[in-house]
Specification:
The protein is mainly α. The protein is built from two helices and no strands. 46% of the residues lie in helices and 0% in strands. It starts with 18 loop residues before the first helix and ends in a 13-residue tail after the last helix.
Length: 63
């Protein structure tokens, strides 16, 4: 199950996302009391972790 966590270390990167997706992310972030950036990071990590058929490297990341 996806659980929203609070993290503090970030780096800047620009992505273009559909307006409706940003609105949905903003709503969830507000309800969970985290930043949209933090939520997007966690969503990406969760999605990558759920990808089937790939091996994990020693660092825990998929190759």
């Amino acid at each position: 199950m996806f659980v929203v966590k609070k993290n503090s270390e970030m780096t800047n990167k620009t992505f273009r996302l559909p307006v409706d997706l940003v609105e949905r992310l903003t709503e969830v972030a507000k309800s969970q009391n985290v930043s949209v950036n933090n939520l997007v990071q966690q969503c990406c990590e969760y999605a990558l972790g759920e990808m089937a058929g790939e091996e994990r490297s020693a660092s825990g990341r998929k190759k």
